[in-house]
Amino acid sequence: MLDFTRDDLDQLFDVADEMRKYSKGQIPLLKDKVMASLFFQPSTRTRLSIEAEMVRLGGQVIGFADPSVSKASVGETYHDIVKSVDGYSNVLAIRHGIDGHAQFAAEIAEAPVINAGDGWNEHPTQAMTDLYTISRELGRLDDLHVVILMDLFRNRVTSSLIYGFAKYADVKVSLISPSPLRKEVEDDVKAAGLDIRYARSLKDVIRDVDVIYVGRIIKERFNDPVEYESVRGSYIVNLEAIEGCKDSMIILDPLPRVDELPAEVDSSNHAKYFEEAAYGIPVRMALLALMFGAR
Ligand code: NCD
User: Fold this and answer.
1) Ligand 1 atom closest to Cα of residue 116
2) For residue 166, how many other CB atoms are within 10 A of its CB?
């Protein structure tokens, strides 16, 4: 997210507004382009939406959803896979379990690389989708109070999102988490002037909150099941927990969800997480169009 300025995001969101017309259709801006979609880790939304976006822009997609069908399964290096696939494609969308592997690919490949999630580090296109959702649902990205309920250290979405909020004015972020935010992220965003602090419980802040951003505690990132059990259920956003909130307050979750957000919340007017998943389409269509100078 540090590669993007506020102006870049404004431009991205303006183009995304245009792309909304084609979310279920097609605008052939990238007819002669091929995207390689390399997912070394599981995905539902990010992979399927990024592939749909390329198709809706008139482009083609190659790739794998599971590295076991590639030569990674017999020990081919990441370097060699990226180097080879670079020769077959015009853009690479990569999800990998190791921090920094998107950046590493960008250094190897001539084609541009989209980071679709690297390790515990960042997930910038999710954050762009989240920021777009907030701006279109609430009409602004300045002057907000956002509460983030997440296992901050282990969730890569958090760092990207918080870097995003730091680009706007008068944003206050309250954190509720069993783990601390990464030190370098906290230092960077504080230096950028973001008002960020830990809160004890949702109840303490709920009256004043514009956005609740909640994410699951990611079980597969714990080596020790005892440690997972000790933090499991640290927070929950149910109907009782949001009593007394503003009428306009919205709830987002990058999904998948487990027990942090029960289905009883789905019918509430505050629930916007499926809209959030759908907003990913115009946002990443816009990103792809801008990357190729087609907008
Ligand atoms: C997230 C991820 O994979 O980082 N999901 C997503 O892309 N929407 C978060 C998660 O897995 O919990």
Assistant:
1) 7
2) 21
Count the Cβ atoms, other than its own, within 10 Å of residue 152.
23
Is any ligand 1 atom within 6 A of the Cβ of residue 280?
no
Nearest atom of ligand 1 to the alpha carbon of 255? 8
| Phi, psi for residue 63 in degrees, rounded to 5 | 145, -165
Please count the CA atoms within 13 angstroms of the CA of 143 that sit on its side-chain side: 3
Half-sphere exposure of 44 (CA within 13 A, CB side): 6
Average pLDDT score over residue span 260-283? 98
What CA–CA distance (Å, rounded) separates 274 from 45? 11
Beta pairing class for 195-198 and 171-176: parallel
Model pTM above 0.85: yes
Query: Would you say 196 and 162 are in contact if contact means Cβ atoms under 8 Å apart?
Result: yes
